[in-house]
Amino acid sequence: MNGTFKTIQRLCALSSVAVLLAACGGGPSLPTALPPPPPPPPPAVTYVLSGAVSEMTSAGSAPVQGARVIEMVSGRTSVSDQDGRYSIDGLTAISRSVSVTKAGYIVATGAVTMSGDTELDIRLERIASYVLSGVVFEMTAAGQVPVEGVELYCDSCGSPVGHTFVYTNAAGAYRFEWSQNGVHPLFVTKAGYDIFDPTGELLDSYGRIHATVRGDTRFDVQLVRR
Q: What pTM did the predictor assign?
């Protein structure tokens, strides 16, 4: 009987220790099941904005190569190819604004609401330009004589981006094909010559003479030997 009682006492003691360890966190812990991770969001659906850049000429509509097309919301760009085609991908379905630029042309804009792959054609218009031309000469005892090989530099004419050099031919003639209306300063240089300026009003502090363009304009320049 005493042996049975002692066995019961030992079991009670062991049970108390197990309860104490469990209460203090010393016992083994059961694994806890974690919730599954949320599924990844579906990829965003994007579309392509494409089209053609053209201009109207005397022969009809013609493609414009090298125009920069900018989608204003995303900042994505494309440059038109030899057929005037452009393409901008990765665009979501919202309202889009497009700006098209090329030197020598007026900036064009367009707008479209995209709900799928979308075509947007843009028509560009050239900036009005004219021809600035003339003769560079000197006065001699025999009269007016053309001066060949004179260098003329125009910072704002001669091409859509300006910064153009031309040289007079044997007849003393020069020609800037692309000039807008307005005043254009010209550097005119030839070794051994200065620009003739009897009034002092045509030259600025840089030694430039000023040509005023109003449509196709002839502007002759007289040089004098040093």
A: 0.66
55-110 confidence digits (pLDDT tens): 999 999 999 999 999 999 999 999 999 999 999 999 999 999 999 999 999 999 99
CB contact at 8 A, 45 and 93: yes
**What's the rounded Cα separation, in Å, for the pair 129 and 117?**
38
Report which of 91, 80, 85 is spatially closest to residue 113, judged by C-alpha positions: 91
Tens of pLDDT, residue by residue over 107-125, are 999 999 999 999 999 999 9
Cα–Cα distance, 174 to 41 (Å, whole number): 67
CA dihedral (98, 102, 103, 109) positive or negative:
negative
| Residue where the block lists tokens 């850049």 | 53
Ranges of beta strands (E only) in the chain are 47-57, 60-63, 68-71, 77-79, 85-91, 95-101, 105-106, 108-113, 118-119, 122-126, 130-140, 143-146, 151-154, 164-167, 173-179, 182-189, 193-195, 209-213, 217-218, 221-225
Angle at 129 between CA 134 and CA 212, to 5 degrees: 50
